[in-house]
UniProtKB/TrEMBL annotation:
Residues 23-277 form the EAL domain. The chain holds residues 154 to 432 of 443 of the full protein. It comes from Paenibacillus pinisoli. The lineage of its organism: Bacteria, Bacillati, Bacillota, Bacilli, Bacillales. This is Bifunctional diguanylate cyclase/phosphodiesterase. One of its GO terms (molecular function) is cyclic-guanylate-specific phosphodiesterase activity. It comes from the Bacteria.
Length: 279
């Protein structure tokens, strides 16, 4: 228990203390983690539904903490956003993913796209757009081969600066996808306001489409609407063949999920992945 003065006392139980200690360890560990090379990227394949072929990969960050083990990005990204470290970490992710894409092209895996998650905090950095151009140039990539995944949270963080950055990137040929559509407070209003070319349907939405559920009709209708608006749709979290078949029938463009491939280590990616998923 801790005395707060004015006769107020707060009690911490063991669970709270553990949680606080873990948060402190993560905060303290984040700063040297880049320098100590504790981050790595996993790559999850994304497939085209029309022919079952590979469209590209999504880069997903992993942190191997020396004491705490593997920490999920769900846990450390919000902390990195809070203390601003997401800016150097995000730049490292983009450079590493672009280096991987350039390496894959050389290795015979050509014509693929690389999707990279971008935090709203990165978008507020006035040098972000220039950083993107520099990295793409550094690896001699085409701008169309890079897709930046943004979330609607972007609208809550200095949205003018973010919309300006997205508009510049989009005008310069970068692909922009709105991630996590269907989770939380997604709104069509935000979708119309942002110059995106692609919508990623959240896995919480996809989970129940193979059952007789409301989601089934909602997802089918969203895909139809997005096609009318000329937007591409990626369904995330596809785990069952039934979901794959339904999404194909409804005209969804791309799929990602454990059915098609887990996030993988770069060493296991090879040209055998160029074959059709359905073969
Ligand atoms: P996200 O962008 O929605 O990424 C998809 C997440 O779903 C990944 O979790 C992936 O492993 C998981 N997933 C993929 N297929 C399936 C499936 O079939 N079923 C289920 N249940 N899950 C599936 P992960 O890697 O833990 O990443 C979580 C989130 O952390 C990401 O969600 C993204 O928002 C964030 N994140 C990951 N890497 C980065 C990064 O480099 N920068 C930033 N800013 N955020 C990142």
């Amino acid at each position: 228990a801790k005395e707060l003065g004015g006769n107020r006392t707060v009690f911490y139980n063991a669970e709270d203390t553990n949680r606080m200690n873990r948060r402190i360890a993560i905060e303290m560990g984040l700063r040297p983690a880049l320098f100590l090379r504790q981050f790595h990227l996993s790559y999850q394949p994304i497939y085209r539904l029309s022919d079952g072929r590979l469209r590209g990969f999504e880069a997903l960050i992993r942190w191997q903490h020396p004491e705490l083990g593997l920490i999920s990005p769900h846990e450390f990204i919000p902390i990195a956003e809070y203390n601003g470290l997401i800016i150097p970490i995000g730049e490292w992710v983009l450079r590493e993913a672009c280096k991987m894409l350039a390496g894959m092209t050389e290795y015979g895996l050509s014509g693929l796209t690389m999707s990279v998650n971008i935090s709203p905090v990165q978008m507020q950095d006035p040098s972000f757009v220039q950083t993107v151009w520099n990295i793409i140039h550094e690896f001699g990539l085409s701008r169309q081969s890079v897709e930046l995944d943004i979330t609607e949270h972007i609208m809550m963080h200095s949205s003018e600066q973010s919309i300006m950055a997205i508009t510049q990137l989009r005008a310069g040929g970068i692909r922009i996808a709105l991630d996590g559509f269907g989770a939380g407070f997604s709104s069509l209003h935000h979708l119309m306001e942002l110059p995106v070319h692609c919508l990623k349907l959240d896995k919480s939405f996809i989970r129940r489409i193979d059952l007789q559920s409301a989601e089934r009709h909602v997802v089918e209708a969203i895909i139809g609407l997005m096609r009318k608006l000329g937007l591409e749709v990626v369904a995330e979290g596809v785990e069952y063949k039934e979901q794959y078949e339904l999404l194909k029938e409804w005209g969804c463009h791309y799929v990602q999920g454990y059915l098609l491939g887990m996030p993988m280590d770069p060493t296991v990616i090879d040209t055998s992945m160029l074959g059709s998923f359905v073969d």
